[in-house]
Amino acid sequence: MRKNFKILFLLIAVVFTVSRSGEVTAGSFGQSSDYLRYGVGARSLAMGGAYVALADDPTAAYWNPASLTLSNGYQMLSMHAPFFYDTSLNYIGYVHPFGRNLRVSAANVFLFSGGYEKRSYVNEIIEDDLNIMKNTSIISLAYNLRDLAGRNSELRKVSLGASFKLAHEDIMEYTGTGYGADFGIIYRPIELINVGFSVQNAIRPSIVLVESDNEYNTNFRLGTSLRTPGDSLRLNVDMNKMLDQDTYYCIGAEYCIIERIFLRAGFNHKNSLTYGIGLRDDTIIPFNFNYSFSDHKLGGLHRMGMMIEFGNIYTASAKALVDKPSGVYELRGIDNEIRFSLSCADFDIEKWKFLIVNDESEKIREYSGRSTPPEFIKWDVNDSYGRPVLPGDYEYIFKVVYGDGEKWISENPLTLKHPGFKGLDNQYLDFKLKLD
Predict the structure, then answer these.
(1) Residues 22-38 as b or e (16 or more Cβ within 10 Å = b)
(2) CB under 8 Å to 111, separation ≥6 — which residues?
(3) Any idea what DSSP says for residue 208?
């Protein structure tokens, strides 16, 4: 399966590189809304900006507000993109889930460019160190229709979203403000495929700086995202059409080379190759660090981003109720019992499984069910055949599959040992000393 998806990616990349209609025309930049064309998020930009159907983080407020329903965590994300000539683009966003259907997000896009001068008609400096600042604040809502649709309705696979924007510009001594809105939709025909559509500036902000209105352009995005089971490989393709501009395409891929390390690559709207890396760590607080790079006529463009997750609505957990800290249980002859406390989200549960495995990942004992799991599980420290388990290092794994297809896995270590047992090395040393 993985090999087939790699071949598919290469074929699509070749087709789009050869057949696409070319990069965005130069006239699309230099307009009021140009800073909203650059894209946000180091992860998405490493994949060429092909993100309308995959935006499962706080950048969904920019790419497709309906994609917020793909995120089940309380997430905070920031991005810094230094450009050239004292110019930078920054983004910060937060998404808050309410239940399993509603998502609310707040975000901000900020462009700063400094070092400008104001000169007279005879080229004398009147004022220096002037700045250009463009800022858009975004409030987004997204809702999944599963609870409003019938059990067998395709609408269960649809999410709708809207973003309401306040755009503000400071161009040296001129200022202006405008209001606008974006709309989006996400459709998941099967578990491994997303289809996304969004209209950026469906309600177009209009800003008056001097006399005439500067109206933001409307941009249509249509894309799809495919992934392999286990999320080892993702492939995204987007088509973009801005009013009065040529259609352009973006393509990107993300591959998990080893656990918690991701490689990304793509082609963006300028026909430039993009690539980057992502690192994830769950030791204390789950966080992602992302980096992307793309080439430009003036040099390389770097983007860096960080996302922190403060919890997840589908969290399921298990805890061994033992006397010793760090999951250590002292065996008491053949009369042993370990109690495990189980907890999970209060949603429909399709099935659950509780496993105990040894240090070679071999299954020792299994408990399972197809409804809400019990509050406690009692293990008699025997294997599936009723034989007492030997001292050593083990792991208990709690897996929950919810009725809407979401999954959660909790893994924790467990050590079984005899009281006062010193280990083979100490026993051998004591025996050798006696012989000497």
Answers:
(1) eebeeebeeebbebbbb
(2) 35, 87, 88, 89, 90, 132, 133, 134, 135
(3) E
pLDDT 10s digits, 92-135: 999 999 998 999 999 999 998 877 777 767 677 777 777 888 99
d(CA 155, CA 152): 9
Give the whole-angstrom CA distance, residue 75 versus residue 82.
Answer: 23
Contact 109, 35 (CB under 8 A): yes
Query: Looking at this protein, which amino acid is placed at residue 231?
Result: D
Q: What is the pLDDT of residues 54-81, one digit of tens each?
A: 999 999 999 999 999 999 999 999 999 9
Domains in the chain (CATH in brackets) are 2-311 (2.40.160.60), 317-417 (2.60.40.2550)
Average confidence (pLDDT) over 246-253: 91
* pLDDT of the residue at 36: 79
Q: How many residues does the chain have?
A: 436
CA distances from 42 to 34, 48, 89 (A): 18, 10, 12
The confidence score (pLDDT) of residue 33 equals: 64
